[in-house]
Amino acid sequence: MSTTTGALRDIRIQDSFWSDYIRLIRDVVIPYQWEALNDRIPDVEPSHAIQNLRIAAGEEEGSFYGMVFQDSDVAKWLEAVAYLLESEPDAELQRMADAVVDLIAKAQREDGYLNTYYQLKEPGNEWTNLCECHELYTAGHLIEGAVAYWHATGNTKILDVACKFADYIGTVFGPEPGQIHGYDGHQEIELALVRLYRATDEERYLQLSRYFLDERGRVPSFYDREHEARGHTHHWESDFMIKKKSYSQAHAPIREQQTAEGHAVRLVYMCAAMADIALESGDASLLKACRNLWNNIVTKQMYVTGAIGGMAQEESFTLDYDLPSDTAYAETCASIGLIFFAQRMLKLEPDSRYADVMERALYNTVLGSMSRDGKHFFYVNPLEVWPKACGVNHVYDHVKTVRQGWFGCACCPPNVARLLASLGQYIYMTNDSTVYTHLYIGGEADLMVGDNRITLKQHSELPWQGNVQLGIRTDAEKGAMFTLALRVPSWCTSMHILINGVPYMADIDNGYALIRRTWMDGDRIDLSIPMEVLRLKGHPLLRETGGKVAIQRGPLIYCLEETDNGEHLHRLYVGSFQAAETVFEQNVLGGVQVIRMEASRLSDENWNGELYASNVNSLFEPATATFIPYYAWANRGEGEMAVWVRER
Amino acid sequence: MSTTTGALRDIRIQDSFWSDYIRLIRDVVIPYQWEALNDRIPDVEPSHAIQNLRIAAGEEEGSFYGMVFQDSDVAKWLEAVAYLLESEPDAELQRMADAVVDLIAKAQREDGYLNTYYQLKEPGNEWTNLCECHELYTAGHLIEGAVAYWHATGNTKILDVACKFADYIGTVFGPEPGQIHGYDGHQEIELALVRLYRATDEERYLQLSRYFLDERGRVPSFYDREHEARGHTHHWESDFMIKKKSYSQAHAPIREQQTAEGHAVRLVYMCAAMADIALESGDASLLKACRNLWNNIVTKQMYVTGAIGGMAQEESFTLDYDLPSDTAYAETCASIGLIFFAQRMLKLEPDSRYADVMERALYNTVLGSMSRDGKHFFYVNPLEVWPKACGVNHVYDHVKTVRQGWFGCACCPPNVARLLASLGQYIYMTNDSTVYTHLYIGGEADLMVGDNRITLKQHSELPWQGNVQLGIRTDAEKGAMFTLALRVPSWCTSMHILINGVPYMADIDNGYALIRRTWMDGDRIDLSIPMEVLRLKGHPLLRETGGKVAIQRGPLIYCLEETDNGEHLHRLYVGSFQAAETVFEQNVLGGVQVIRMEASRLSDENWNGELYASNVNSLFEPATATFIPYYAWANRGEGEMAVWVRER
């Protein structure tokens, strides 16, 4: 049974909430990024990525500049462009991208190799430092971009580049004598090769992906072997990437890893590939490993915003129930990778808890990482910010209190671009008999369910109100028989369904309301999903959330900002939720639902200036707590912010 | 009016609590340190400090090893030995120390200069990097050690070394053309020169100390000038000490500094010198500056344990009300420096709030920094420890969960040794008409008050019970007229006084109960200081302490340990203090008063494995919270510890 999310060209998002963001990607982010890649943005760190390719292609003289994985920025840009072109043709944009494809092809070495860092800066040292130098990671992004661009435009030149490179990699790596028995320090090639397999039907790509996964974490360590072979040199300032195997999930074979360890982005990229291979091969041990890692992340190591990776140093997971709000790293790319992982798990076993996490990461961390102008981004997404301490107390050195224009390591902005440009692929999933609706995002989708081609039209008032209408269009005169599986979000207690105006009691299976019937053209489903203000608590083992609550309404996590609540947010204690007032304020942050509730503010009137005192009863003043959606924070200047709030 | 704390030889501590610790210093710490300085302790970082001196003295061949301030370890050892010898002669110990004096004298250069780092490793570069290289800091410790040793033993050779060095420094630094108009990056010379002035009555030492204080923070920066003059080199890996002027309190003239900034030890050493100069000179602007910095520290930047300097990076203060418990740096030396500062402020203006802080730092952070065996030490003194996260989450990399044998930068253990060896100097203070009792520590003290020589005999049950007896001995047949000023500790509501068995209502002035009368030989004062279990709260602006309480009884801050309370200490919420039970347990930690009280433990029974949930009421199980004194933590293996505890 094949499961598909549908091609982007068949899914047209028309949504009062999301269309603006996707428009931003097309009109602002992609052109801005193009300028950045060409070093035409003043006062930001130079990229040099296009120029590196030009030099490698022999079109210019010069030397390499940038990170070892600088090429990947071009590949991710190309991938995002591909999704935009697939959704909506644009001749000018395609002309630019075609020129990039030509450049990439020209830069490719005769044998298929392509990596401007090694070609220009360390020729002869290719494949000598997989642990640190992202060589296969960069190849993976090139392959992902190539597959997406070929898929969107039919450009076979870029697919040929990808195949030629992958084939070359297949000669270099593998179990045979004379081949390198190794893998990359940063997972990415693994999921890219699955995409190439799906595009070409060439089994060898699937096998190579599987080979990389299976090699990972074997003893003795490949990292140590290659380290010794190259004379114990290391690329970065410290050699911890080589020494600390868990940093890149190479401390144990992947099937034996029970907890999420190390660099968060690497882990979720690896998990996405594991799920891909499990789906393609039916490997039950891989599926089990995926479930273990998934469960560890979401039940012990995930922020309420869908962010993961709590530690700035090493951009890493730490240990179960260690989720500090203010020193959080919570990298944007890691939440994007978590969405990749969730989407693949849904294909393996449709269960709304995967979609719930996907929605949580999307509406909160990923959306919150980009400013409303599309030109500023967060790399780090803390759940609590005290601007006065940032820049003073060095534990906050990684925290930015406002979004930044660009980054020296610019992985996050292009990742947001390619995710939002391909958002259509996360909404629906179909197989022979069922159409799943994972996300309530408006638009039209042409879907194949079994032999039936249908069009599903969705109108959604999310995230502000839980009203959704779905309309079925089918040419089949006798209708189309299939199950419509509608996700019941975790944030609602019950979901009311009308079919053509008549109440319907659906069976709920793994978090989806199932409606199996012969659907006729013009059938209409009305969903009413209650959106209450939820008072979230953290698991008792979480040290950070004790005595505190977080506010959620619909898919959105809320936060307090200084702008609305004054400084010293920690003095605000929320009280009863009974009288919580939810108001859509058109003039706030482009229009958001604001939540106000009774609160108390800890007073210092009964303090005489001492820092500590006994026999002082806490004195509270009545106050109002005003919450805004977390994703919208830091759009009104710098100020304190907090997701977790004390309660009385 | 001269104020004195009395000579150590006149103060004999005989105290059921403290005598053991002082005995440890004599029997264990000082011999252990001597072995360390001579590189005879296996498996710890070598010191080489004595050998550096031998090489400089021409007694051995070899090269310098260690920190630029390695000599100061020998000087601090000598100072601690001096205090021990002054308190109780020991011919063998004195013989060893005399040999060290001979060695130091032999290592001194003809012109008076003495610093083995520069003499052996960078001859010719003396005085070219005051900002980073601790040259005057090292000189200061030598002078302090010399004065103490001369005072204890009458050894004039070491005083001559000190004077010759100080005189040489006086030719190098000063306002005249051709002199260096600068100061040291690490304050210490300033307070040392005041001690040398008091020992010799030579005004020029006082003037030089004052010169260094007055130069500090002038614009353009001395650091920048010397940096440029030596060709922009820097000694340490990073040049931040040069760039970040506030790190060493050189960002503004000292009288303009309103808040405690930068490296905590440097700040309090500077403040101690400022107070010294204010006392000697009557400089009101300096006294005002001392008060400003004192108030900022104790009302905005001090932990409840008397620790200061919350940030590991740069060992620094951060900003007002930023006192994280778990990432605290809270260096032992900084609390010792705070005690130095407090003692000097007491001389300037007797006020119990200075003595309260002195007591707080002494009984909690300083005492807690040393193990009960006298061979293990904390450099960092956190208020909350989660051992599982240490070594995993790098924000805790500076935290040790158990005391260590020695340190590469071994500033703290010798500092504890010299403080405890001189503890007698912190108990009393006399002037023409008053005897102040700052600390309730048992023993006998021969004191001059005006023209009267008296002996004050103290018996104290602190810190376990608030019973204190003071006995007066005087040879004066008609008695001695003076005021006995007895500190009323901040932790008691009232102090009951009996004089010769008769209740006495004393006037309270600046926190001291004043008893002015003609004291006769054999007069006896009984103090009863109620020791209730205090429920401390933190100022409402402290983010860390919201919703939490700390337990204090007498001078001791208490904490929870995993050994007594099980893991996950954060789940324990204390309830009513009414039924708090205080029991002296002879078998716990060598005998401590343990506090037990009703508590609730947050249960996870109503959790289904999710990390976040709405509509979950917090469920509590009855529990008992067992508190031990903070100073005694981590003496029973590794485990969680917490000072601040949630309350219900």
List the helices and strands and how they pair.
The structure is a homodimer of 648-residue chains.
Chain A: E1 11-13, H1 18-37, H2 49-56, H3 71-87, H4 91-107, H5 116-120, H6 130-133, H7 135-153, H8 156-172, H9 189-200, H10 203-215, H11 222-229, H12 240-243, H13 264-281, H14 284-300, H15 332-348, H16 352-368, E2 384-385, H17 412-421, E3 428-430, E4 434-437, E5 443-449, E6 452-460, E7 467-474, E8 480-487, E9 496-499, E10 502-504, E11 507-509, E12 512-519, E13 524-528, E14 533-538, E15 548-553, E16 556-561, H18 562-565, E17 572-574, E18 581-585, E19 592-602, E20 612-614, E21 620-629, E22 641-642, E23 645-647
Parallel strand pairs in A: 4-8, 17-23
Antiparallel strand pairs in A: 1-5, 2-22, 3-4, 5-6, 6-7, 7-13, 8-12, 9-10, 9-13, 11-12, 14-15, 15-16, 15-23, 16-21, 16-22, 17-19, 18-19, 19-21
